[in-house]
Amino acid sequence: MHFIPTNISNSHKNIIASGVKRIEMLNIALSNEKYLVDDREILRGGISYMIHTVESIFKQFPNDYLYLIIGLDLLTNITKWERFDDIIGLCNIIVSYRKIGDMMGTLERSIANESSLKSIISTDPAIFHSSSYGKIYLEKTSSVKISSTEVRSKLRNKETVSKFMPPQLEEWLLKNKIY
């Protein structure tokens, strides 16, 4: 699994930490040998668009099935992404969500905004066995109990975040005062 920090967001999102610092945070946080901190967007420079990243990974691993994992918050505007049809033509997308209520509301808004999504969204994991690309799978994630916005808020308010991350990352964040 590749973790790929954005260089410069193409949205309204204001990224406070530098690319180097975000790479450093990931290296501290990820201890599983199957996790790879991938700096391709930072090295590429400029504004980050998902299509460029997916194409780059597809070229590097042309015989592998690609799965893009995103949070539920991104589903509502996914069809507005730069060259979304090309992205979904190269991979399947897994949308992670925390609560059924959140998922249902976002799903309804997404389908209302773009009815073509209805035919490619599923909560059935078997969809990935039927196709190597072109599907969106909704997956409930129970292990994530807090959003990045909440973590940053807690850090700004000098509250502990130790139950949400490895202790060495909390220590690093407090020492470097990024948020």
What would you say this structure looks like, in words?
The relative contact order is 0.13. The chain is 39% helix and 12% strand. The chain has a 4-stranded parallel sheet with strand order 3-4-6-5. A two-stranded parallel ribbon has the order 1-2. It folds into 2 domains: 2-144, HUPs (Rossmann fold); 145-179, no CATH class. The chain is α/β, with parallel strands linked by helices.
Number of domain units: 2
Strand order of the largest sheet: 3-4-6-5
Q: How many β-strand runs? A: 6
CATH superfamily of the largest domain: HUPs
Give the termini separation. Answer: 26 Å
Approximate strand percentage: 5-15%
Helix-strand makeup class = alpha/beta
Task: Please name the defining characteristics of this protein.
179 residues; alpha/beta; Rossmann fold; 2 domains; four-stranded parallel beta sheet; two-stranded parallel sheet; 8 helices; 6 strands; 39% helix
Question: What is this entry, summarized?
Answer:
Helix content is 39%, strand content 12%. With 179 residues, the protein is of the alpha/beta class.
Describe how the helices and strands are arranged.
Layout: E1 2-3, H1 19-29, E2 36-37, H2 40-44, H3 50-60, E3 67-71, H4 84-88, E4 92-97, H5 100-113, E5 121-122, H6 127-130, E6 136-140, H7 148-156, H8 167-176
